[in-house]
Design a protein that fits this description.
With 379 residues, this protein is of the alpha/beta class. Among the domains are: 178 residues, FAD/NAD(P)-binding domain, CATH 3.50.50; 79 residues, D-Amino Acid Oxidase, subunit A, domain 2 (D-Amino Acid Oxidase, Chain A, domain 2, 2-Layer Sandwich). 30% of the residues lie in helices and 27% in strands. It has ten helices and 19 strands. The chain has an eight-stranded mixed beta sheet. A six-stranded mixed beta sheet has the order 8-2-1-12-19-18, with helices on one face. Strand 15 and strand 16 form a beta hairpin. Helix 1 crosses helix 9, helix 3 packs across helix 6 and helix 3 packs across helix 9. The chain is globular and about 70 Å long. The protein starts with a strand and ends with a helix. The structure holds flavin-adenine dinucleotide.
Length: 379
């Protein structure tokens, strides 16, 4: 009989891993504490921006982002085909806008090292910038243009991924309540109890619980250093004016969505697990909106919301087996790029489930925090 896989957490990472695992022939169950669609996932702006998100230089994280980005069109096509839902993948391209000469040098350095991976990337001077993005502030003096970058509508991606999982035969268990017990034994695999009601058993467990993933430490005594960073974000009525590209400034970004809004994000607050929206958080976004697009000056967003990004100590995700406990795989800590990184994460988890690779040597494994883990175990 096929091996069974239990996935904890029904955000985009859990759903992507579930779809991959079921495609590889595993019997898959996803158990979600509340509703499917995730917490950070539903809040995300949905930008697929491997170049804009990696300004500093080539490293394994950039390679992971790029790899995931390359997989995206085919991955989305499959999800749309299986689910019958649309995720609104939009090849808008992006502009990283400079307002001062001091902004230009790092962007031009970026252009040098990134162009081999994106041949169409180029520097736009002031007049070309204003011709491709006519409503941007006249104070903008140039921009790094990346025609390849794109975006999806994250809440729709989550709906489509959930439906694709259902149709592909994944067992989906929403509103399972809080985790009350987790046991791992070499002989009988993994056993997870939610609330005081139901227990699920499986050969392997994949933990995809986003910002809440630190809970694992209580049950397996291995530190999983993930913490929440709140992102506050808002949306304007797109009827106010035109935004053609994903536009990044040093303080905020703007992206037009097919639902008739311009989404503007996002704060990065340390606020524990508090998901409330604050006047201060949104005020910073509205102030910058007016500076970058004058038609947004003084306008009130039609909606504002917040989500908790799952952050790690080094800003890179955790994708790998728990040291000394190969029955448990962690796929969490995707911070600002979990939507982008979903296909690549699912592929990595699939390879781990097939035991085609182990976590050691993988730049995203828990091994890099191993010293912490070992210390925790010996307590
Ligand atoms: C404002 C904002 C903007 C963003 N913009 C972008 C963007 O443009 N591009 C991009 O790539 N990324 C973006 N991100 C980041 C992205 O949203 C996250 O990295 C990604 O959604 C993480 O997905 P996840 O499935 O790990 O977490 P989540 O979506 O948070 O899902 C985790 C799930 O686990 C469940 N859970 C928790 N504990 C348990 C338990 N014990 N048992 C069972 N279930 C449990 C939760 O209920 C939740 O449903 C943004 C995030 C925010 C907040």
């Amino acid at each position: 009989m096929a091996q069974s896989v239990l996935i904890l957490g029904g955000g985009i990472i859990g759903l992507s891993c579930a779809l991959e695992a079921t495609g590889l022939g595993f019997r898959v169950t996803v158990v979600e504490e509340s509703g499917f669609g995730g917490q950070a996932t539903g809040a995300a702006a949905g930008m697929l921006a491997p170049f804009s998100e990696n300004p500093d230089g080539f490293d394994p994280f950039f390679r992971l982002c790029l790899d995931s980005f390359m997989q995206y069109p085919e991955w989305v096509r499959e999800i749309e085909e299986i689910s019958g839902e649309r995720v609104e993948l939009s090849a808008s391209g992006s502009l990283n806008v400079a307002f001062h000469e001091a902004d230009m040098l790092p962007m031009q350095t970026r252009l040098q090292w990134q162009r081999p991976y994106c041949a169409q990337m180029e520097w736009l001077d002031e007049s070309r910038l204003h011709s491709v993005e006519p409503r941007i502030s006249r104070k903008a003096i140039g921009a790094l243009y990346c025609p390849a970058e794109s975006h999806v509508f994250a809440p729709k991606l989550a709906i489509a991924a959930e439906e694709a999982c259902r149709r592909a035969g994944v067992r989906l268990v929403p509103h399972a309540g809080p985790l009350s017990k987790l046991e791992v034994t070499k002989a009988s695999g993994v056993s997870v109890t939610m609330g005081d009601a139901q227990t699920w058993r499986a050969d392997r467990l994949v933990v995809c619980t986003g910002a809440w993933s630190g809970f694992l430490q209580e049950w397996i005594r291995v530190g999983v250093p993930v913490h929440p960073i709140r992102g506050q974000i808002c949306a304007y009525d797109a009827g106010l004016g035109e935004v053609r590209h994903m536009v990044f400034s040093s303080q905020a970004y703007w992206v037009r969505k097919d639902d008739g809004t311009i989404v503007c994000g996002a704060s990065e607050d340390v606020a524990g697990f508090d998901r409330s929206v604050t006047a201060q958080g949104i005020e910073r976004l509205t102030r910058w909106s007016g500076r970058v697009f004058s038609f947004l000056e003084g306008k009130t967003p039609v909606r504002s919301w917040a989500g908790l990004r799952p952050a790690t100590l080094d800003g890179r995700p955790l994708i790998g087996e728990v040291p000394g406990c190969p029955e448990v795989i962690v796929a969490a800590g995707h911070y600002r790029n979990g939507i982008l990184l979903s296909p690549a994460t699912a592929s990595m988890v699939g390879r781990l489930l097939l035991a085609k690779t182990d976590s050691q040597g993988n730049a995203f494994s828990l091994e890099r925090f191993n010293r912490t883990a070992e210390k925790e175990r010996s307590r």
